[in-house]
Design brief:
The complex is a heterodimer of chains A (225) and B (114). In chain A, 33% of the residues lie in helices and 23% in strands. Chain A has 9 helices and 7 strands, in the order αααββααβααβββααβ. By secondary structure, chain B is mainly alpha-helical. Chain B has one domain: Serine Threonine Protein Phosphatase 5, Tetratricopeptide repeat. Helix content of chain B is 68%, strand content 0%. Chain B contains 6 helices and no strands. The longest helix of chain B is centred in the middle third of the chain and has 16 residues. The chains are: A alpha/beta (225), B mainly alpha (114). At the A-B interface, α1, α5, β3, α6 and α8 of A face α1, α2, α4 and α6 of B.
Chain lengths: 225, 114
């Protein structure tokens, strides 16, 4: 019996480590540049749901802070972007970003492209498909890139467990007082997809997470709220 | 010996399932800020400010300090609400806590002091 327990525990352990690429291998430039300050760019909305851009914009701030970065207040930068005609991030995603370094002091800019935003009213489910691209304002290089298609079940409360469970729970606790469940859905999507992002200066694992596993560059999941 | 191996495997298996404590306490500040930005009224402003106060006063997160941007946002809103000196003090507190914010926040302070 003991033998079976040991074997099954070993199999469990090995399966969690099988064919996993490390964060250092997946995101080497994050460890080279070690960005500290991040400017959140207004999302690029490729869906027909016009309001998705607004819903999603404010959901990026706390998950990135929780990853240990200094994130400029979206409320304050949004006013600046609008006054400087920089509210359309499409203009900057492939362009020179040095102005964000010069004006804000940002080391990197986080772009998001909303590709899917669907609501299934009957099933109480929101599907968010979003690509996240973090570019250096110094070199212009892409430091981090990952895409997720996340189904958020808005009908029940979360019981998320595991390494990222606490952060997902943290995002989900807002549901009781949420302005809208669409905002919560966006936040859960961000927390889930950015879960393998190397931690910034204020994170508990800053510069110690190189050997931790990185996720696949395209991830699909269902997260319960 | 077997017991030691079993214990070590159990510890490793459990370690891969550990939870991560949040760095900061946010309370309902995100939702209050979102509601205010979508519908700026005295009521939504008061609710947002109450949440900022809570985030600044009661930090139970891993770092035990005010999160990035919160002093700045609250200070900025106070300035807009006519409480300029109080607001500027908070904006300066942001630079003190996070020196990397100086370039942006100093620019805001200069605009507000004009």
């Amino acid at each position: 019996m003991k033998k079976y327990i040991i074997l099954s525990l070993m199999a469990l352990l090995m399966s969690s480590c099988a064919e996993q690429i490390t964060r250092l291998e997946q995101y080497p430039k994050m460890y080279e540049e070690k960005p500290l300050t991040i400017a959140v760019m207004p999302p690029i909305n490729q869906t027909n749901f016009v309001e998705a851009k607004d819903y999603f914009y404010t959901t990026l701030y706390t998950p990135l802070c929780e990853k240990g970065y200094y994130v400029y207040s979206p409320m304050m930068t949004m006013e600046m972007f609008q006054s400087e005609s920089a509210y359309d991030a499409e203009m900057f995603i492939d362009a020179d970003l040095s102005q964000f370094r010069n004006v804000l002091g940002a080391d990197a800019a986080m772009f998001t492209i909303i590709k899917t935003w669907k609501r299934d009213k009957v099933g109480g489910k929101i599907t968010a498909g979003v690509e996240y691209v973090l570019r250096s304002t110094k070199t212009g290089e892409t430091l981090y890139k990952r895409e997720g298609l996340i189904n958020v079940d808005t009908s029940v409360n979360t019981n998320s467990k595991g390494l990222f469970g606490a952060l997902i729970d943290l995002a989900a606790t807002a549901v009781a007082t949420a302005a809208t469940d669409k905002v919560v859905a966006g936040r859960l999507c961000t927390v889930y997809v950015l879960s393998d992002m190397p931690e910034g200066k204020y994170g508990a694992k800053f510069d110690q997470d190189q050997k931790m596993p990185a996720g696949k560059s395209y991830v699909t999941a269902t997260v319960k709220q | 010996m077997k017991r030691m191996i079993l214990s070590a495997i159990c510890v490793m298996a459990l370690a891969s399932c550990q939870t991560q404590q949040p760095l900061y306490s946010w309370y309902d500040s995100e939702d209050a800020t979102y509601t205010y930005t979508k519908r700026a009224t005295e009521e939504t402003l008061a609710k947002a400010m109450a949440q900022y106060e809570k985030v600044i006063q009661k930090q139970n997160g891993l770092r035990g300090v005010v999160p990035p941007g919160v002093n700045a946002e609250y200070g900025y809103l106070l300035c807009k609400a006519g409480k300029k000196q109080e607001g500027l003090t908070l904006l300066r507190a942001e630079i003190k806590a996070y020196p990397e914010s100086e370039k942006f926040i100093s620019r805001i302070i200069n605009q507000l002091e004009k």
